Amino acid sequence: MDDALTTRRWPLEVPLCAGLLIALGLGGIARGDELVGSGDYWSRQMVWLTLAVLTWTTSLVWHYRRLRSIAWSLFAIAIVLLLVVYAFPARNGSRRWISLGGFQMQPSELMKLAYILSLSAYLMMRENYRTLWGLIPPFLMTLVPVVLILKEPNLGTAMLFFPMLYAMLFAAGARLRHLVPIALLGALSLPMLWQVMSSEQRSRVTAVFTQTDGGAPPKGDAYHLHQSKQMLALGGVWGSDLAGMPVADPLAYSLPESRTDFVFCLVGERWGVWGACAVIGLYLALLGCGLRIAARTQEPFGRLLAVGVVTLLATQAAINTAMTVGLMPITGITLPLLSHGGSSLVTTALALGLLTNVGMRAEHEVFGEPFRF
């Protein structure tokens, strides 16, 4: 680590907000274990948390600019791993994991960071994004992982890449008249992506437009959405910890994948509106800190890296919380730092470690010409 760096320059808001979000997530996971009456999700999450802290700490040791030379290699490795998943047996109809003994890895999580690093390395050169033809390669390098991840199928993770692309293009200074055709290309690719989607993914999209409130729980994909909204409603303003459980029927609190995809509902049920607002407020504070880091950093690779990480976390949190209230389709996407899951937690810790790494060195990375147009 650079000797000149001191904790005075550290963006301490990043680990502070992340720690509070993790604490809320652990509380929600513990509540999920309690409602189910069995399971050790909380204790397993503590093991993954230890590994995540080690990952975050390790990511601060080396200068982030060293990753620029291996960014494309990481992207190529991630593409290969997305293809390797098809060599392993499907789990619940999905091929998302690589299993080696007792270790399981989800390559789509690695792809998110590899994509940010490789796109940052490409866009840091002005001639690569200030022309229309220069924007075609980043569009294609976005489309490849999106199609592969949709085929797993994994709609939620696939939805993250295009927001990252446009945010990083905007931060790099791409011309508006060039971004419009790229946006049209993205719109024209939607029918193709719809064909790639599985029937289950399509039904989850259509369920958003056919949802109804009240009455008996529906069957099929609409059941998850019905139960998630009901779980939030049962929490009320103060939550079950203070106000108690308003309904004695345990079926009312039944929510599949509650400790992973729907942990936001568990936080809302346990601590009510105030708990849900605390989650959203902490995310906003964390993302605001990330944007300040990006604004202070005029070195191109570091600024784009910070913008990519912020956009990734913002998009993932927005999709997850929106799907719990019926504003977006139900997807298998986790809530960063809160949901149970080792791949998600470790990847998020690494992303925040890179963001902290850039923030620690922002004042030492000022070039002669500002990185803006």
Instruction: Give the number of domains.
Output: 1
**Largest sheet: number of strands, sense, barrel closure:** 2 strands, antiparallel
Q: Count the beta strands.
A: 2
Strand content: under 5%
Distance between the termini: 32 Å
Total of DSSP H or I helical runs spanning 4+ residues: 15
Shape, please? globular
Radius of gyration: 21 Å
3D structure, described in words:
This protein has helices spanning 13-36, 41-58, 71-84, 107-123, 136-150, 155-158, 161-172, 176-188, 190-196, 199-209, 222-235, 240-243, 263-296, 300-324, 342-360, and strands at residues 98-100, 103-105. 62% of the residues lie in helices and 2% in strands. It has one domain (7-364). The chain has a two-stranded antiparallel ribbon. The longest helix has 34 residues, at 263-296. It is an all-alpha fold and 373 residues long.
How is the secondary structure organized here?
Blueprint: H1 13-36, H2 41-58, H3 71-84, E1 98-100, E2 103-105, H4 107-123, H5 136-150, H6 155-158, H7 161-172, H8 176-188, H9 190-196, H10 199-209, H11 222-235, H12 240-243, H13 263-296, H14 300-324, H15 342-360
Antiparallel strand pairs: 1-2
Throw out a few tags for this protein.
373 residues, disordered N terminus, mainly alpha, two-stranded antiparallel sheet
In short:
The chain has 373 residues and is mainly α.
